[in-house]
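lol ok so funny story. i was supposed to be doing the assay writeup but got distracted and ended up predicting the structure for this chain instead. priorities right. anyway since i did it might as well share w the group, maybe its usefull for someone
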Amino acid sequence: MSRTDSPRKSGVGMAWASTFKLRGKNRNVSAEMVGFDPSESYTVELQSNDITAFAVVELIALLKSHTRASISIELKPKSLSGRLMVQTMRLGKTRLDKRFKMRVSDFVLNIERQYKTGVSA
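and the output, tada:
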């Protein structure tokens, strides 16, 4: 993954590009921050050849040392192969939800560990 925006600033307009292999095929994805409120939420738009996705992360302050993170992703297919991919994901939604929750939990724990030790990513 690499940053593609210029000048590099924090907030709306930040952009990244990534290439990875999924099911034997190289995939190219670009991402752009389209909404940013540092203390409450941010929205990222992801684009690939077959799918457009919007990921929204909402942060809710519970206590001084506790914050709840809510993450949602909306997928919109742009082609027939994108529709097939989304339909396949719907069929395996229970398993995908479980894996997604585990990965998000690991990610949040990693951020918490970095914050407590003062290490920046």
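Residues 64 and 93 are 35 Å apart (CA to CA). The chain has a mean pLDDT of 89.
back to the writeup now i swear
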